[in-house]
Amino acid sequence: MGRPQQKLISFTIDGRQVQAPENMMLADAAKLGDVEIPVFCYEPKLGQPVGACRMCLVEIEGIPKLQTGCSTPVKDGMVVHTRSERVQAAQHGVVEFLLLNHPLDCPVCDKGGECPLQDITFGWGGGVARTRELKRHFKKPVELSPLIAIDRERCILCYRCARFSQEVSEDHQLVLAERGSHSFISTFDSHPYISHFSGNIIELCPVGALTSIPYRFRARPWDIEGAGTVCTLCPAQCNVTLTVRNERVLRVLARENPAVDDGWLCDKGRFGYQSFHVDQRITQPLIRDGGALRAVPWEIALERAAGLLERARGQACALAGGSASNEEGYLLARLMREALASEAIDTLAAVPPRAAHMLARPQLQAAVADIEHADTVLVLGCELREEAPIIELRVRKGVRRNGVRLLVATPQRSALDAVAGLAVRCAQGGEGELAIALAGALQGAEAQEGAHAGAAERAGVTPADLRALAQALRSGGKDVVVIYGQRLLRTAAAAQALLDIARELKLEADRQEREEGRTCGLLGIPDGVSNARGLLESGLAPGYDPGYRPRQLPDPDAAPDAHAMAAGLAGGKLRLLYLLGADPLRCGLPEDAWQAALDSGAAVIAHADFITETIREHAQVVFPAESYAEKEGTVVHPDGRLQRLRPAIERQGEVRAGWWVIAELARRLDLDFGLLGSERSPGARALEAAGIIAEGLSATRASELLLASVAIYAGIDLEQIGGKGRRWQQSAGAGALPEPPSAPERERAAGTPEPLNAYRPLFDAPEAEYSPALRFLYRRASGRQPAPLRSEQAPGAPAERAGESNGELGARSELVAGLVIRHVAGAGEGREQR
Amino acid sequence: MAEAQLPVSVWSPGEDVVEVRRAPAPGAARSFTRAFLETLRGLKTTFARVIEGPVTIQYPEEKVPVYPRFRGRHRLHRFEESGLEKCVGCSLCAAACPADCIRVVAAENTPEHRVSAGERYAAVYEINLSRCIFCGYCEVACPFDAITMGHDYELSDYDRSDLIFTKEMLLAEPLERTPLRREDE
């Protein structure tokens, strides 16, 4: 299908000649001529315009009646007037009607000061109220959910929220109840509006009818500052603006970037900010002293950590996760390799670097924006709603608006099944084998007999399903995007299978073809770690240097990955574990194996923001970790887009930059990165070490060091990354990607534990656990003991035979809804906890 | 492009020339008048005031009454019947303040703890009077007439931090009333 081509036409608006793409809506095209047409209900992100509010009436020559600018496509030679007497009279009338029932309680309304209704009344209204009649009344404020308050008196019935629920998130929960002047926005039977994306309606509402309960009455627009950064709570890496007042994050708003998030946020991203400021957060360095953790000055913690590292030379290993930035990953990898001669480094996502290397070719890489313009999208082995929710919205947009054909192949029932043309089930953990079987089916009978024999049985997919999937892909048009969960790369030969699928479907497209509109390729969603791709590309990967360069190692087992690391720790071969924002007991890694690894008595040094069980029981030294709102650095989106984190607030308590801690440890181990003020005087350096002067400049230097050290990032600097990010595949460094070795992939080393191959639900995260507003979702969605979930997810059990045709995801969602209803009926715990 | 030669206009004073007329050189009689008679003429005003008596106001025992619209220290108000605060914590005063000396932190009323008449109330309301320029914009901005400029002008203190007036101080009646100027004064 490809991206549509646009044709420019010329029209006249308020006496100006304006060039605009043909069929663009008049409300948008007017902006190209610096003319503003006021709108309430019009929002292009919500799909087709509805013309509900009538605010955008304009006069078009040749049409006797006034027309709505939001639903009239612009045509060549059109002559439009937006400030004529007739239009002004209509605008005054519309504003008067909208204000007829509006309570005008602006002083107590949270929207006051950033309210389109205020602005438009001021700019286009008549300025005089003539009504003496009583206004319509509702009970207010009412909790639409524990996160959103609804004030129906303020509502102007623009349908934006209902359209979002019906046409964007497609949860179909918000509806208009009653008719005519009695209409009001509601859910069916006043059930709470619980959805992964419910917070977006707060931002969509053009009046103060839908407000955020956690932000309620916290600040007014003139009290606050906006700080743009990137949310690193999941791999979707949405661009956000943090609302800051008195060095506290009070709100998270979307910062629209069509190449990343399309202007939406999930509820974890929108409400998880509260965890930055809770008392439970670690804000001081801690060391273990007589069995318990004790707060100590930085100097002592650094000394202790350096001593532990020194003693574990050659026997240390490191795991990174959470929101670790590229800089931290790069420095940690060098610290482990150069100062400690240890090769055991990996991320919690445990993406096999060799497989990632094979799939990293720029010609094969689909970008997020390609999803909506593809002919067919295959979602293979990942639950986008839980793993990268905003990408799910992009898939839904493609299906709904552009007729993308969606194929889903997952172990559990997926939230996308309802809109999929074909949904295929495989066994739990069988995604990799499914990819192999699918490659075989696409290559034809010969391959199915050969290397791919038995894959379908191991994948637990029925032959009929496999045939249907292969047929749908083969007839799926020119542009196919395969979104795969990177968990499946843990299966040997799965990466090769994906390459085979790409070759059979001709998914390769070079830069030229992509610019001409081809939208195809592969997009891998990392397992739980937001910046997994960036960490891998920065060299934090077993046996790989920055930029996918394989290391020359004498023995392939010399660089254990996250799985082998657990075995090494448990067996006593490794004696120190360095955790960079990672908790191996709370991710997709096998819990039993890691419990044994931690119980082995290995020393643990951790950068952590909360005291989890791992930290409380096992950590020797704990450095307080930054939240993403405090962090400066770069991260990489799953499609290869480098994005920049900018600090929005000052670090809480004694928290210091992660890269500074690693560089400081390296200095104590006689490794100099040239970051710690070597250009500064000794006095300035002492002040910097004492935290008296900022090391902000050096944070930029850490980024520069990273960008200079990773060959594939050549030609990209911080300026270019800017606010919107930049994909390395589209810059000069793309050619520097080394050819992947042709040797076959190694089977998993004997004795390493089997990976769990199950995703963790979105709200099963510390941000949900520690944010008072989100806690109700945390407990319900996962629970502290995910044990029962695991026994159901026995690897290798075919889905059909295990009686999962109805799927456990569906069952769990119902449970969530049931519990939440009871919770809300019990007088809103969420609000008391604010 | 070569620069075009512009015609140079020469300014000529023409009719603007005014001849300055100077006084004739002072003689003896004229000097005498200047030194004594003119001085006496001025002193006439001085001596005329003597009979009016002293006008010094013995501050602080005695205070100058102020006009009703005098802009002194702010006051916050309550509703007389219900005793609820008029202020709903909307922060419009803080937005209007050119000296940026007002800080408002709002909170939500609950049925058990009702402070103001609206949904929200000012949990913190502070005016830094050492910064205030007494322009009265806050009073104009207030949609509920909750803040007005009072008549008190005695605001000196020994400590700057004591000049940050809290909500309780602004709501309380002033200890000593400033005299108001009567209609005939």
Tell how many strands the DSSP assignment of chain B holds. Answer: 5
Largest sheet of chain B: 3 strands, antiparallel
| Structural category of chain A | alpha/beta
Radius of gyration of chain A: 28 Å
Portion in helices of chain B: 10-25%
> Which CATH architecture of the domain at 74-171 in chain B is right?
2-Layer Sandwich
General shape of chain A: globular
Q: List the strand order in the largest sheet of chain A.
A: 15-14-27-26-25-16-17
CATH topology grouping of the domain at 286-351 and 531-735 in chain A: Rossmann fold
This entry's quaternary arrangement is heterodimer
Query: What would you call the structural class of chain B?
Result: alpha+beta
**Separate helix tally of chain A:** 30
Q: How many β strands of chain A by DSSP?
A: 30
Distance between the termini of chain B: 76 Å
- Which CATH class of the domain at 74-171 in chain B is shown? Alpha Beta
Count of discrete alpha- or pi-helical segments spanning 4 or more residues of chain B: 4
